């Protein structure tokens, strides 16, 4: 209450000062048709009046504009009154009491937009007010006299107030700005570009001209704040300007704060610009920050590196070590973002992932089913098994019970596939996704996403056949298994070398198969069939249940051996008692599986979950597996 009273007293004092005869002629301060009244109040120096400071606004004025304001104390007082106004009515009342110049009218509109934004006022009422239209008429008639900084702020304010861009007044302001672009400072151009990129997108003519000016004058760019703002807000509009901004960011990388590094990394991620030199510089200087990084910095840098597939082990290690103490206080969404980013980067930090698993257990009631599904998919990608395995997956099964119908087709396919990777898929899950009523909902186009979903469904079908003894059906039909094509990729050097070496050992390609596509959804790089003396047999002569279409019909001799993956031993198909071959001289199938660099975790030489499941399935199908990497 006291503050409001003081503000009103200040208004009366300043108004009295402005209306004093010695301050200025009445014709300059009172609108036409009104009588100027002289009030008998003591004269007080302007310096003794306590009003809000305009130094923040004046800092961005050109020197000529600041000099003009300092020479005209009456104009300075009116400007201070405009800044001191606390409501639209005070501003409109001020416009009625005094004859405003076009520059002052623009300041009033700027202050109106700021009040509307701060107090969430209805802008329609402001735009429809007759006094607002009078202010706009003043500006329109003398727009060339509006200062550069005030003109830029006026354009921003009109956008904030929601003025229709097709109106003549708005086009007039934009046209004036267009003509003055050469006279605007680089900082004003940057502010204008930020505004227009948000309002007009890539199609605006004014924005195009502003960007051209920025590209030509980019050497004037100074200060980290402007660089960061342009990269974050304008860079996506102009690739040419973004190239210049990246060069400047490299030059200023040492000066960036951790918050500015976060903003630049996010901007690069959203624009999908994998600028390796800049990312390396940001990583280096981020590691040089000896203070503890904030949670927002850790999460956003991790997200950006994951989206850009940029690997920096030292940064990941620091992020993981500094994130671990925060896990207990993070929200479920933040935990999901964290684990998904590490999964994308194929970086498994055991202490952090154990903390996330424990957090999920402790906060299972607050954890939604979609969040839980994201955590399961991330764990499966890295083949992470929590130490409290039984408790964790008991909670997972309890949360998923009765929720399968509510999940989207793609999400449910990913979750069941991930549970297959982790060897936690239960019969009801398998029955649900392998039923014809479910897989008919999968997209049938040739998009990569659709092909990935169908391939995962085939892997689930393989799990049901090979790893679920109590599962009785349903299964995918042979037509569906054969309809999903694979291959077409260029052979890698490792694949070509393996082919050449095996061909030389076997004495020709007829004694083996290469790039074998199986009914389990996995490709075997090479397949051999050896007799008891380790001599190759022609695989084409024998039945091959792992193929979509077997070339031979002769079954393998009784007693041929199958590798049992979970016991790590060899046993007979027909039993040792009825074997017609000596125990150590039975034929056996050998599969060569090639593991390239992307098949491994980035922190160690552990296979990713998908590759682990492929190896298990091939072993369960009756092969001795030879890993090639």
From TrEMBL:
Coiled coil: none annotated. Its main location: mitochondrion. It comes from the Eukaryota. Residues 1-26 form the signal peptide. One of its GO terms (molecular function) is RNA binding. This is FAST kinase domain-containing protein 4. GO terms for cellular component: mitochondrial matrix; ribonucleoprotein granule. It holds the Pfam family FAST_1. The keyword Signal applies. It comes from Crypturellus soui. Belongs to the FAST kinase family. The gene is Tbrg4. Residues 300-354, 372-442 form the FAST kinase leucine-rich domain. It is found in: Mitochondrion matrix. Residues 455-537 form the FAST kinase-like protein subdomain domain. One of its GO terms (biological process) is regulation of mitochondrial mRNA stability. Keywords: Signal, Transit peptide. InterPro entries: FAST_2 (IPR013579), FAST_kinase (IPR050870), FAST_Leu-rich (IPR010622).
